[in-house]
Amino acid sequence: MTFSALIIGANSAIAKALINQLLQGNQPLTEDSTGRHITEIISISRTDNEPLLHSPVIHRRLQVQDYSEASITEVINQINTESTCLRMVFICNGILHDGNLQPEKNIGQLSEFALQRVFTVNTVTPTLWLKHLFPVFDRQKKQHGNTPCHVVVFSARIGSIGDNELGGWYSYRASKAALNMVLKTMAIEFRRRIPNVKLIAFHPGTTDTPLSKPFQKSVSKEKLFSPEFVATQLLKIIDETPVDGELSYLDWDNKPIIW
Ligand SMILES: NC(=O)c1ccc[n+]([C@@H]2O[C@H](COP(=O)([O-])OP(=O)(O)OC[C@H]3O[C@@H](n4cnc5c(N)ncnc54)[C@H](OP(=O)(O)O)[C@@H]3O)[C@@H](O)[C@H]2O)c1
């Protein structure tokens, strides 16, 4: 039996820090309250995510072509083996800007192109991964009973409707709010059908990565986190969060965020 951590979107700076920490085998990172060690990390990215460290933990690096549904199914088929038992899943994909789009400052800047692109990466892609992981969890439950699995999907505080004081950043905000609603709806179905899976919508805080780079000027030093700090916090949160059939919307400090 292989107890695995699955990291999707492995070229994210935060994902790399998570992989490093899992490879280093820091406790409680490889052992949870059931005493089952993570013995394998499966990382998935569009680019060939490079090996990070030598470690007794096996690191399988898989490539996904373009996050289309067909390419996601292809990769899922490679990981859904009888001996694999997923204990942690991290879905890290997210886009805020690229060469062709910037977060909107006002209504006039909204565009069909940006809305579709941002929703595809931030909402549709994680949703499709969870759709195709559902049968994997179902098989695991039949095979391994109620072995818990924490599924962390990277959301953002900016997706909170209740917390929206500033406005702006329409596509990113709305795509993360929509992601939260998908996760909430899925949590209800998981509770009924696969209650050993715990869903977490996670806000890492402003973290020093390519995603936040152009917007870091107004962030004070203490509020700009390193990916390593966020990875440590997140692994601690997993250790402290019980499997309770609910979706938790948590920040880096394990504090709940209002919806
Ligand atoms: N950094 C922050 O301040 C901050 C704050 C709040 C929330 N977040 C969220 O945290 C998560 C990780 O972000 P990060 O800061 O680590 O960003 P990052 O280093 O820029 O990583 C970008 C991530 O998005 C994926 N991605 C980029 N373009 C994509 C596309 N066209 N289709 C599918 N996936 C694509 C990448 O996957 P590949 O591995 O395939 O390249 C990678 O996982 C994101 O969901 C982000 O919204 C970040």
TrEMBL record:
Q: Molecular function (GO) terms listed? A: oxidoreductase activity
Q: Name one Pfam family in it.
A: adh_short
Taxonomically, the superkingdom here is Bacteria
Q: Name one GO cellular component term.
A: cytoplasm
Q: Which InterPro entries match?
A: Fungal_SecMetab_SDRs, NAD(P)-bd_dom_sf, SDR_fam
Looking up PANTHER family in the UniProt record yields: NAD(P)-BINDING ROSSMANN-FOLD SUPERFAMILY PROTEIN, SHORT-CHAIN DEHYDROGENASE/REDUCTASE
Q: What is this protein called?
A: Short-chain dehydrogenase
**Gene source species:** Marinibactrum halimedae
